[in-house]
Amino acid sequence: MKEKRKKIFGQNITKTILALTLTYVIIQLLVYTNIINSYLQITLATICINIILAVSLNLITGFTGQFSLGHAGFMSIGAYACAIITLKNPTTTGFVLGVLTGAVAAAIVGFLVGLPTLRLQGDYLAIATLGMSEIIKVVFINLDKITNGAAGLSGIPQFVNWTWLFVFTAGTILVIFNLLRSSHGRACISIREDEIAASAMGINTTRYKVIAFTFGAFCAGIAGALYASYFYFIEPGLFGFQRSIDVLVIVVFGGLGSISGSVLAAILLAVISTYLQALSEIRMILYSLLLIIIMLFRPQGLLGSKEISLNFFKKRGKLFPGKGRI
Amino acid sequence: MEQFLQQVVNGLSLGSIYALIALGYTMVYGIIKLINFAHGDVYMIGAYVGFFCMTTFNLGVFPSLLIAMVLCTLLGVTIEKVAYKRLRNATRIAVLITAIGVSLFLENVVMFFMKAGVRSYPAMTGFIAKKFKLGTMVITMQQVLIMVITIVLMVLLQYIVKKTKIGKAMRAVSLDRDAAELMGINIDTTISFTFAIGSSLAGAAGVLVGIYYNSINPLMGTMPGLKAFIAAVFGGIGIIPGAMVGGYFIGMVEVFVAGYLNSMYRDAVVFAILILILIIKPAGLFGKNVREKV
User: Which residue has the higher pLDDT, A321 or A3?
Assistant: First the structure.
């Protein structure tokens, strides 16, 4: 039993659980005492949803080395599934069912799309996944009867609060973190480092690429479901090319191949964007300049492929060796 | 039958524009293996330059076209020097994200100064407003102009690439960069020149689209940019005739889907074609399969 717990929560079980509980309690207190007011709560939800998206995209792009630009497409599947189910059945059970259905539907689409397209490499895969997400968008626009077309669905019951956000975000991070430390995860990293060498070593590269892609899609589905339930309005235009790019920016900004980097970048970018709201006119200009400058002067992102662990200050541990190159 | 021919003419006009943009994509990809996402926005800026030439300065179509081409050339070379040159040896994904950053930057700067709204090109007068009627089929002078200008530019491009020294250098660099450098070819100049030609073609496409569709907006470059890229992939990326054929093909498909099926589906069909090509023949129509060596 202890062994198993050790496997799930890492070497410092108590520390990990303590840190998770502390994060939860502190933020819950801040919400309760209204220091995090309803405006900042939107930022909080954005951060959590972006963390789920970024960590799962990092699994596909940063760790497995498959460049995907279609994350928004998977997200929209989760969002629509959850929205449609909770609109029919506005209870907590309905919400949980909606999130699960959304995630599974996204994973199924991810699997079906991934199987043929993951044979492609690099830029081609990026464009194919981009095309897939555009096709999903067009399908949602044209399924008028179910999705209300381009006008979108509104009045989705809001079930998501900090507790749900925390459960799903922490859950995603833990699962992906553990997946990466398993033999499956190492196989994924070996594909990133050198696909030919990996397959020569007997790794079924297609299988692991599809696993990573499907699981990434699953998590994106969860993020989409949370989005729909928190912001109670969705339309196909929300899940366009721009959103895939936003997620990719978070991943690259944090560092390809660094989960804590993705988390940090999701928080930083959301905070920056909240404060830039006042300068909404030039916000996007600054955002794009920031992106170019980061790429020119620190192309490996904030953390590179390093991780911040709990004892980061004792030793700057490198959990996943390798340079994070594609 | 006449409706069919009308669609063919419309498809050729739209295809010309895609082909012009696709040429820039394919040349840049051929030489530095980068999907230059900012290329669609260079096209957008070309359209705006043309707009200002025609409205504020009251210039004719041809002077506007030339000015737009020159300014886009400068813009393309500047983008290459400022944003991509430093990353010559960086990872592909880093350069790609820089390209996305440049694209967002151009869109938002234009949106900041021009506001997000749609602007209309002035109504064409004189000989450009002419229409030819063949039965029920109507060919406008704009369409003729687009097709003729595109063909002239393509012939010019073929001449530059095949017959001039710099064209030879471009081909050499795209074949093997290191070997070309060892043979004394200046890589930086060649890459800048490639960007210059590609951007000038995109600028021309921008003005032509303004004349043809009349309305322009700061985000007009994204979709045509992606579709032109698909056109380039269809023809075999890095291959110049491939981009031309691909451009016309995508234009035709789009017009026919919109005309005979449902205009809502045209984007989806184009992307579906892309995925099919990538699965069936990733090297494209004219591409050769290159075996990977370890």
Answer: A3
